[in-house]
Each structure stands twice: as C-alpha cells, then as structure tokens.
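Q: My labmate handed me this sequence with no annotations at all. I'd like to see what the chain might look like in three dimensions before we decide whether it's worth expressing. Could you predict it?
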Amino acid sequence: MTRRRRAAALGGLALVLGGLAASDVAGREAALERRIGRAVPVVVARRALAPGTKLGAADLAVRQVPARYAPAGAFADPRAVVGLQVARAVPAGADLDAARIGDPATGGAPGPRIRRGERVAEVLAVGAGAAVGPGSRVDVLITREGRGSAAGATTLALEAVEVLSAAPAQTADGPADGPARTALGLRVTLRQAVYLAAAQSFAREIRVLPRAPGDDRRGATGMAVGEGL
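A: Here is what I predict for the chain of 229 residues:
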C-alpha cells in the first residue's frame, strides 16, 4: 500500500470513529434527557427578600433546571411575578412560587391556616382547570408507569381533598403540547403528604377531578383500573 493510500485509509477510519463517538455521545445525552427531562427556566430570587417586598426585575434571576427537579408551581418568566408582593421571606437563590408571593391588592397575605396534624402537600397535577381554586375539593388519581408497552394502572388515591392554593404551572415536565398542569397546595395528613411527595417521582401522571360544591362523599379510595384495560 502506497503512502498516499495509507493516509487516505487512516483519514477515512478517523472519520468513521469520530462519527461513532459523536453518535454515542448524542445517544447518552438523549438517554439522560429522557431520564431527568429537558432543562426548563425557573425564576429565583437574586437576593434575600423580606415579606412585603414589591418584586422588581432587579430582584429576580432565571436558572435552568432539569424538568424532573423543577419545583411544582415555579414560574418560568420573571414578568409573571414583577409587581407582586412577597408574602413569606425568600432566601437569596430560592425558587419563587405561588406560596411565597401574593397580590399587592391583598397585601401579600400569608398562606392558609393549618390545623394540628395537617400538612400542605404541593403537587403538580393535570385536569384542574378553572373549576379548581382555594376552598374547592378534588379527588386525586395516580397513574403509574406501565411495563413495556402496556399502560400503567390508575388508582383513586385521595378523595375530597381541600385545595388551599392553585396556580398555573409553567415548568411542567413533558411535551410542550401536553395537557396543561396546575400547581396545587392540598390540605392533607402527614401520611398523605408523604405519599404524594413520593408520587411526584414514581407516578407517570397525577390528575385531580374537581368536585361539586358541598360534595364530600367518600368510600371509593383505592379503586383502581389495571394495565389490562
């Protein structure tokens, strides 16, 4: 083999190996993105903010967070909170959400009163819509990931749960054309709060079903539709 042919062969081999390496890196990046979600913007406090502070652009910053780890109810655009008032102290670098800010017209009132033994569970749910707001009640459905190509089972996890807060979620994981999600604060027991926190990780979807005013009937908790539907 002549020197020229040897050089051409080595150059071709280098191109092939480079292409394979690039393909492997792209595949790893794609797998990582599928596992933790695409990066989404989250509005954070640029400095420590005291209760009563009226938010301005200089108080805010944006950081990129994997969608899986983006906090429920976080804002993606600083313009959505400029002009609102801080309801609770916010440390520098902390995420801003509906529980920490309020409307100037209300004076940025603090959150709802929690009774002994109760907790506020923050969940990112679909199916809320305009019918869900503070004081309304919802049923909570948990859909697990399926096995292989099978659909996951759906279970009625909680019934007639009181909604304490509701705000559009702008950092929801999933495709851009997926269903709109809402960041909800729910009045629950400690056990229920722990379960819902775990569900944020293991569930494929958390969905809430609004109830009619005054409807607080219970008795169907645990009802499930299996993968074979």
